[in-house]
Batch of 3 targets.
Target 1
Amino acid sequence: MMIGVEQLVLFKKAKLDKAKTAQAVKDFFTEDFGHYLNLANKHLSDISSPTLDPNNVGGHDGLNHQDERMTANLDAQACVLAVDHTISSCSHISGTILYLYFIKHWSNDRIRSKLGYQSTRFNEVKNDACVEFAERFDFWRKEDGSSIEDLQVFESLETAEGISKSGH
């Protein structure tokens, strides 16, 4: 799919709010992801595991043959698959941090110690990992057919360009 000229211009002007995006990813994992796992009948141990088979998500011919519950379950499976694909596609350090923190529930101190980071630097790298996750998740949520919302948070164009909300 080609990006239209207007969309491309907006994309170039839009600036990712990295702090809010990192927080959105953290909120997703702490508040929402467990629910998707339950609906998909999956477990954290299924992430990056051979048991999470892409063929197990379920096919869809574009027609609504499922009741709402089945559709929610299929969407949840697609979300879990998208998370698995996203973590796997992240850079090695980001994927490691995301997997150990959000999937294995290791403490920040344990991960920091394993990777050899000082506290301040680790927090920066962890936030960068969350931003990378959000950017890559935008691709994988679409690729895997999940209707979950984008986790990227952009600064408003008005704020980025110094224009008031009234347009003046």
Target 2
Amino acid sequence: MRATELAARLLLALVFLAAVVGKLRTRAAFAGFVVSVGQFGVPARWTRPVARLAVAAEAAVVVLLAVGRTAPAGLLLAAGLLAVLTAAVVGALRRGARPACRCFGSADAPVGPRHVARNVALAAVAVLGLLGGAVAGPSLSPAAALLAAGVAVPLAAVAVRLDDLVALFAPTPSRTTRPAGRP
């Protein structure tokens, strides 16, 4: 295993694990996710089955990435799932819809170009992981494994908390203050 493959597997496993946990941690979180699936244009009778399928696919990514022999399948599934999710976001944006991003559970931020960019970047990570795993080389040293984890964990945190980071650094409207005693 190469450091690139390990970093990709760890980053994607953490992101998809956060997605699964966020959606399943409470009934309300899953119900909100089901509603958001409908906001992407899925017919009402299909929202719950599609939501369940999405969570099952995300969980499968985590399990497949955790086992060395199935990691390539996990990377392929991650890339495919991210492509489908990206297409759903792009389709919603083209229709002028701005459904809530329930990617990680209960966030209310509407989808936007940043979600497309995040998904494309994560899909690129999956492809890099596949390429890194296909290259023959020496076994992974402990230092390389530590470096891979040191890169993957903070990047996963950024991917998961992207909406919060954007909100944190978003410009705030300036408030005009009036001198005391003036209406």
Target 3
Amino acid sequence: MTAGSKGGRIRFGGPFHPFPTLPMTTYSETTTSTHQSDPDALKVLYGLSDEDLAHVRSAGEFLLPDIAKLVDQWYDWLQLLPEYEEFFTDGEILRHVKDFQLDYWSSFFTGTVDATYVEDRRRVGETHARIGLPLQTYFAGMNGFLTLMAQALSAGSPDAPHGRAEVERALNRLVHLDTGIVVDAYTQMVSHTIQQQNRMLMEMSTPVTQIWRGILMLPLVGIIDSKRANDVMSATLGQIASTRARVFILDISGVAVVDTAVANHLIQITQATRLMGCESIISGISPAIAQTVVELGIDVGSIRTTATLRDALADSFSRVGVEFSGSH
């Protein structure tokens, strides 16, 4: 009996690639670990021998003639899932993706794990991450195809359980290798996206603005840690260099906690700006912050501070020769 000739609906998943993979940015080239990019290292990692690959090729000779039927059965099952309506409302897309599935399994059953094979699997993971496909769905699909192949092999060779077991173990190992590559690429792309978002948020949280010729201001809100303090310093020094600012106002009225570490960060920022010829003023010193600084014994004698942003602005305008007036 050839694979897929048994009737009925297959109620388990298969590898799910809603859209054809597309070239991605080159970030993966610099973040991919050696084990996840080197074909020989991957084969060692997953215990995949040349004998296993020979078994995969022999299974392919039996399974590939009817692989299109198996893919069709899997998509029948997929119609039961919400993902189907999300990704396959267009018949042309469905046809294209089915063609991609056939190419995927044709590559799988060559039993050749080389650089091209690995890169193709990485693009699958990157595509899944881009479209937001849950890893659970992918795992279910790969497990489902393993089950489907095992059933087809069993139906085709019922009298050879020992040899069939070796073939099934080989298929398992190669599927596990595929899954490892896909998941590694998926998680790296998700991590890369999160890092980009964090970087954008950090840039938004350090908006050093020129409010007047020679005057810069940065209102800080939230928590200050070493990473954020370094970002503030870099952004501030860069703006000082480009604008030739003489005064920098750092408003901390929105800072949640001021402890020894935060105070040291602020001192370092003011010292760095002074080295560039720009005087810093820290505004927004509340009674609670003042009391905390005194209790901690922090020396802030070299830092110019004001209770309010208004006072800091008045001081800044005076320093650059602009008369500041307003109602009191």
